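Cont'd.
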Amino acid sequence: MKAKTRTTSKRASANGNGRYVELRLYVAGQTPKSLAALANLKKICAEHLDGQYKLHVIDLLKTPQLAHNDQILAIPTLVRKLPEPIRKIIGDLSDRNRVLVGLNLRGTAGAK
Amino acid sequence: MRKNRNGNSASNVARLEKALTGIVGFDEISKGGVPKGRPTIVCGGPGCGKTMFGLEFLVRGATQHNEPGVLMTFEETSEEMSKNVASLGFDLKTLAARKKLVLEYVRIEPSEIQETGEYDLEGLFIRLQHAVESIGAKRVVLDTVEAIFSGFSNTGMLRAEIRRLFRWVKDRGLTTIVTAEKGDGTLTRYGLEEYVSDCVIFLDHRVTDQISTRRLRVVKYRGSSHVADEVPFLIDERGFSVMPSTSMRLNHPVSNERVSTGVKDLDDMLEGKGFYRGSSILVSGTAGSGKSSLAALFAQQTCRDGKRCLYVALEESPAQATRNMKSIGIDLGKQVKRGLLRFEAWRPTESGLEMHLLQIHKLVEQHKPAVVIIDPITNLLLGSKNELHSMLMRLIDYLKTQEITGFFTALTSGRNKEIEETDVGISSLIDTWLFARDVELNGERNRCIYVLKSRGMAHSNQVREFVMSKNGIRLLPVYVGSGTVLTGSARLSQEARERAESMLRQQTKEEQRRVLAGKRKALEAQIAAMRSEFAQEEARVALVTQQEERRERESSHDMLEMGSYRAGARHGKVVGPNGRITQGDGGQA
């Protein structure tokens, strides 16, 4: 389980849309919410990003000092570092549409 | 993980442990500070000083009580916060560098946050814990934690998290101040006081008659007695100061030591020794009756004795007062330079009455004077007389507990009886009351002074004339005669007249003595003459008496002889004294 704290994956190159996405998921230990968020995120990434992304999972129980820079308050929080501007999505990422809107992967038309 | 469980261990059931905040006056009214190891809510409207309270709590904790602290701000960045409080004398950066303080800025930007599904605020806890552990903090300030309500929509979750947060700091024994915005009709906008049940402090900032007054009230303090009244407080270059409690008791120490008034003649009027140390003195009088001069002399005397003096001038600027006092030979500037005299001047309209009192308190604490002079105290009378009375009472009580001599001047407007009546309100608070007034006579206005009362000493009952010159002040005995008091040139001319009269009387006396002596001589001569006359008379009378006696003796001898010659005609007719012849036995029948 602990091995999961930092998962870097896939190639760091531009995808078909010319978009490269850098994500950070902040969690605090293996809580159900954190695990759900990670599972949901992985699914979304696999379906929509086609490998054109980089994901860091940061466990704040281990590296609490990292919470400050991204101004993390809620757990879990997904931060889209790139492309700018920075976006934050909090929660277990169970609402796929909102995640996509939040990550700006599906135009703004569908945004509520 | 460091866990300080002092705050809630079972051994503390008997007594609520408190943590001194280090805020001047607050520890007094709360009888020891805020609950140790527990959260306390400090609430109030915008700009009421909540953040200052929290900050000072942290800074004092770090510098005075060796309790490092964490400041978690939700509204101002660490940088802004450091700058804002630098003007108040708090150097947050240095404290942070010395690991006495951690500034943790929590930014909440609703526009960049999207919510999807369930979450909690564990991040906040992690950051707080990280900050606490990095310096071993004992104190925490959360300013203003309710800002999270603007960043997240799930209020149910937020409330649960806030409850958990308070529980969390309690479990770790962190003495915590939580600031909160005042709500509409409630203490805090989000009802945080529901979660913190131990101690709630309310700060208020109100403006009356264009003068702002800050007030603090301990709304609730579970398990502890506290002052429930609203107490004024001040935020200035030295931080937060709360006015100490009004519940002073009359048990202050007294001194038998005497202090000179700075005027020898006045000392003479007070048993030749002056005021009691630690007593309260009032000099009241009409405008220009010399009150300030007496105050300045007393100040100078205090400094000459090597003691400190605080002079609060509410009428003149220090420079002006110093210049004016030079005209009667008092050099206050010198004493200021020596550091013994502290001259403070401000306009009475500058702030409310409570603020004046607080300001005086603060100055006393800074300067540690033996004497406090307020000139004139009546200038503080902006509101009601009651207010001034209560303020004076508190001030005098405070000074007495510190064994500081209080010297106040009071300006009175009326004349004679009225003057004294206006001051009756404060009479009972005053130990020594000098009354200065002017007497108008013969086109002159002269100053008079007398001791209206002086507790605990046999003071003079004389009215003295108050004469100011380059050499200082003299109190001359006035001319009292024919029912009036004469002063000034009237007194001088009266005195000259009396001298002339006295000389004349002297001359007359001698003349009379001479006449008398002459008379005595004449009388004596007369007596002698009469005596000799009497002696002659006496001698003559004696001679006559002698002759008479001899003649009587001779005549009785003759009658005896005649008797024996007539013995035969014993029962015959006897010639009576009236020449009638009566019968010897027949009588007048």
